[in-house]
Amino acid sequence: MVFTRPESVTTWGSLGGPLLAREIHLAALPAGLPEPGDFAVVTVELAPPGPGQVLIRNLCMAVEPYPPSPAHPGAPPFPVGQPLDGPAVGEVVESMDDELRPGDLVLHGYGWRDQVVLDARSVLRIDPVPGVDPSAYLGALGMSTLAAYVGLLDIAGLRPGEVVFVSGAAGEIGVMAGQIARLKGAARVIGTAGSQARADQLTRRFGFDAAFADAEGEVAERLAAAAPDGIDVCFDNVGGEHLEAAIAALRPHGRVALCGVAPQNATETAPGPRNLALAIGKRLTLRGFSVYDHLWRMPDMLAEVGAWVREGRIVFQETVVHGLEFAPAAYVGLLRGENTGKMIVRI
Amino acid sequence: MVFTRPESVTTWGSLGGPLLAREIHLAALPAGLPEPGDFAVVTVELAPPGPGQVLIRNLCMAVEPYPPSPAHPGAPPFPVGQPLDGPAVGEVVESMDDELRPGDLVLHGYGWRDQVVLDARSVLRIDPVPGVDPSAYLGALGMSTLAAYVGLLDIAGLRPGEVVFVSGAAGEIGVMAGQIARLKGAARVIGTAGSQARADQLTRRFGFDAAFADAEGEVAERLAAAAPDGIDVCFDNVGGEHLEAAIAALRPHGRVALCGVAPQNATETAPGPRNLALAIGKRLTLRGFSVYDHLWRMPDMLAEVGAWVREGRIVFQETVVHGLEFAPAAYVGLLRGENTGKMIVRI
């Protein structure tokens, strides 16, 4: 895909005329996979910020595999005739809030538009890491990385010298969990992926010590082969058989950060780990978490992982599309798997 | 059963002659349930305590449902021709150790004999609770109570006002867990038991707010009825369906102390909780533990629960048999279910 940026029609800020924003709306509900023609660029007039509010100019946004997508048949699609939403990084242009000032960089959930007025409490101020592009806060320094960071350090209490198993390691969170584990001094990092090709990427590109493809009925055996002396920490993105294999491999006082679950393991009829009773004798801790409870750790993550990103010690990939009006094409491309790594739109 | 104590033949201490101890040995391996005739009282001469050792006069011992018992077919039986063992409380008579002094009360694992020489590090000194009989340290203030205390407070982090579910609550640990939960300010304590009669006891005698009998396929439904607004803490002694019901009922940030498992849920083919993925969204923590990692909490438990025992705020039951020579009969009686509560032998 080749994208070029057309002439901008936006007026930044509210000085000198009405405050206009360009937004991407879903024009019609697609029957199957959406096409760029299902979306429309709409220019709307914004009310200027009231007390406690800020006007934000969006710099970039991430395109997430949200509905309407066959991958999420149960979730509601975006409403028709309203702007879509998703993670974005913006700059405060005007502030009616005591904490935020013009020029501040903020992370929020109102992408798919070039500017927006928001309550200050619904945005997260970012302390910028020198030398790092704003799009990094949607990828290598974004919520997935915060989830990996919090899951490993706060939920699983990773200590240097431990053996870490990351299930579903080729996903956005998993690939960061493996790298953070290694940089925090794990003795050995093992990952699983959905295919042998992706497993090979984990060891070749992302520094995993061992990785293997999911193979139904063989996860425990493969994990035992990759970690013959057992594991200390499991960062679980899959559940089901992967979790059962981890419980079998965990050494005494091992910890499991329950971060995610594959769709087939999320149903009420999916079999649970048959060996959970081992958690008693082995004194295991299994703990579910949501990154949204741990946003206060963002500054710590930015400081620590930000330094690694700047030093080139973290491998991450992004596909960048230039121009808000190409966001629908980026979204369709993401659903078709045309991206490598995070799909970013610069606005 | 009526027991009377015959004339003692023991010489306390090592002064004035050889140091003799009476021990109960397994004389022959029983084919099925043991009979008192399978045991023998043997008088042995002990070597006096060496450096770091103490001579202990046992005051009382607990009879546990250890093998040889059909309930534990997989565990090794006591060896023939050697003393049996089990929890006992004794008094230090002579000490060659710097920490322990004559008169100190100690808990150890060498019951089934009237006196014994042990390394000081293999006994636990008890700070006696005034007004409490030594046998209490084997029952209401013993290891089961420490497990209940640690499981609720340290593993599950119980806070006042929370709703607590104890599975297998009619057992030694469960009945204490329910009472400690109540005394620590739980808003509501719910228990399960193996029969309706035992469930009724939990509410009538032990202060549970609600209790119900295990009924296969109905635990979740009954728990939901007993705790319509959900639970915060599960103290699990059963696993399997009980744990699945708890996971369904737990509110966000709920905690499970994994303390024990029923034999049918301990096999590798037993189904695991099918709803474990709920632990992610609900931010649940499941943590297995062993009381032996937490012996340092014994003084805290003794101070807190000991005060409740002295004040009559803890309900506990014991069946007391007088005389070491009746320990085999007490053991056989225990295996036949002739006891009410803890089976104690005063020595």
UniProtKB/TrEMBL annotation, chains A, B:
InterPro entries: ADH-like_C (IPR013149), ADH_N_2 (IPR041694), ER (IPR020843), GroES-like_sf (IPR011032), MDR_fam (IPR045010), NAD(P)-bd_dom_sf (IPR036291). Keywords: Oxidoreductase. Pfam families: ADH_N_2 (PF16884), ADH_zinc_N (PF00107). The keyword Cell cycle does not apply. Residues 32-345 form the Enoyl reductase (ER) domain. SMART domains: PKS_ER. Gene3D superfamilies: Medium-chain alcohol dehydrogenases, catalytic domain, NAD(P)-binding Rossmann-like Domain. The keyword Oxidoreductase applies. One of its GO terms (molecular function) is oxidoreductase activity, acting on the CH-CH group of donors, NAD or NADP as acceptor. SUPFAM superfamilies: GroES-like, NAD(P)-binding Rossmann-fold domains. This is Enoyl reductase (ER) domain-containing protein.
